[in-house]
TrEMBL record:
Residue ranges with Polar residues bias: 21-31
CDD domains: CBS_pair_bac_euk
Keyword terms of this UniProt record: CBS domain
Lineage: superkingdom: Bacteria
Identification of the protein by name: CBS domain-containing protein
Region span, Disordered: 1-31
A Pfam short name: CBS
Amino acid sequence: MAPSSYQAPSRGDKTDKKTHSQSVESNLSHSLTTVSRLLEGKGDAVFSLRPNDTISHAVQILKDKHIGALVVTDQNGKLQGILSERDIVRRMAETPGQTLPQEVAALMTSDVMTCAPDDALMDVLKRMTEGRFRHMPVIVDDNLCGMITIGDVVNFRLKELEYEALRMKQMIVG
C-alpha cells in the first residue's frame, strides 16, 4: 500500500524533463581553470638574476625570498634559463667546496618549459609531473609575466575542491 501522500504520475506531468545533479561541464570544470586564474590570487612577482651572477648570489636570493627557483634573464628581461635548488645541490655533489663562486650560466637549465596564462591548469600540472620539475615560468609574447610552482597548482586545486564540497553540502542541507 502506498503512503497517503503519494500521487501516481498523471498524463499532464512533465516526465520527459530530467534534472541532473552532475553534468560533464560541472565534472570537468576544474580542467578549464587556467594559469591566469591562479596568478590572479598569487600575483606576478618573479625573482630573477643574470647568467654571469654567482651561485653564491643565487643562493642568497633563494634563502632571503624563501623560494626554490630563480629565472635567469638577459638585460632586457628575456628568459635565458632557470636555476633551481636542485640544480645547485647536484653541482655541489659534483664540485664540493667549489660551487658557490661558479656562474649561474654554468648550472642553469637553458631549455625551459614555459606556459601561457590561458593554458589549462591541469595540463600544466601534467607537464610538470611528467617532466619532473616544480617551477614553470609564465610567458606572454616572449615576456615573463609570472612563475608558478607545482605547490601553487596543488594548493589552488585543493581550494577548488573544498569550495565544491561546500557547495554540495549546502545543496544537500539546503
